Amino acid sequence: MSTQQSQIQFLAHASFRITTPEGHVILIDPWYTNNPALPPGLTIPDKVDLILITHGHRDHLDSKMADIIRTKSPKVIANPMVRFYLQEQGVPEHVFEPLNAGGLYLL
User: Fold this and answer.
1) How many angstroms separate the CA atoms of 27 and 32, rounded?
2) Where are the domains of the chain?
């Protein structure tokens, strides 16, 4: 049994960063750009494995999300409206992991 634990870091507002014992980095509703509540020095991590986006409001979907996805190459789980918006911004369809209610995604 592993003694390592997942780390959950509250970034600001509704944004979280989770780091698993295996070193996977998961961002939930990341809002880094122009977030007045984000503590100084907190930046987008170099490595991002998975981004979870609950909805498309600007305080849950970073204004530079398409660039973040292109440079970090994570898998993304988001509702269809957010997916369609990001695809219009040039994010390729293959980065999205389709997930229905009750679905499961393994890192």
Assistant:
1) 11
2) 9-35+48-95
